[in-house]
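ok here's the first one, seq then struct tokens
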Amino acid sequence: MSEPSVTQVAQAIDHTLLKPEATHADVEALVAEAVELGTYSVCVSPSMLPVAVPEGSDLKVAVVCGFPSGKHTSAVKAAEAAESVARGADEIDMVIDIGAAKEGRFDAVEADVAAVRAAAPSPTVLKVIIESAALSDDEIVGVCRAAAAAGADFVKTSTGFHPSGGASEHAVRLMAQTVPDLQVKASGGVRTLDQARAMMAAGATRLGVSGSRALLGSADGATSGGSGY
């Protein structure tokens, strides 16, 4: 299979701005850049809603939930997701309780995801951030299965904020193999076109990228700016 073109990579990107100091002017600039680059969506913090999308654009708006620690209660995550949808979010990227996964309490992870799914039912897209770099392979398998059982649409590697690191080809491949009926989003440290293509070859159908312009211009594979949340 031929590698995706620059345009196809762009169409898989959630163009992301999650810095705590982000302003509404920054989000307006993010949207303009996303439209220019042809990304699938913008991904922002809940307080940035509503996001004005240019008339005639099919740009989607994704919002994080329980971010970045995942240590919020399920009720808080559900309320945050419901409010975000009411304020215009098309997609919700929620963080699981990583500690529950480390303890092997996958039923608790499933219940957490199910609470958010109930608060943000289809057609809202639900992505479940598992923080794969902080998990063992067995834990990755367990949380992916829990997310699938709870009705998620995607499993997502990382917040981009965890000290353990971000996405890896290994994690993406394992996630895609574990829950073939779900899609996989690779985020955290995806900074070059070569890295993006490698993640897509491993099974990612969506990419979380903050430095999208640099990535799409990095055909030589040189490391470029942007955190790649």
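and now the second one, same deal
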Amino acid sequence: MSAQLDVNIDKIDGQMVELIDAFESHPQIQPPNTHPTVFFLLDFIRNTHRMLKDVDPAKFAAGDSGARNAAQEILGRNQFANVLVNDSSGKLALMTGSDPNNPVDLGPEIKAKARALTEV
């Protein structure tokens, strides 16, 4: 399956940077009262972006299975990030030590940027 993966690594990189920037601008990530859910999501997305930076675009383009598998993992993590960003059930809040009856609203910008990463 990953041998047929056709994605633009540079486009994903740019979209991930935009999403990270949106998270870093979110009022609930600002110290001293960083919201734990926002912090968790930003950390997850940053780690995924670091994984992307480790993918060699030349190897990916040449069909290297390691690079292709890494890219597939990154796409899956971006799908999962989108699910988490759009969680309204309270389960994510519970996992991150927040109030599950009052999940954080990340706003339309972050939601749109997370969704865009699933459409690559």
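notes on #2: Residues 65-85 form the longest helix (21 residues). The chain has a mean pLDDT of 92.
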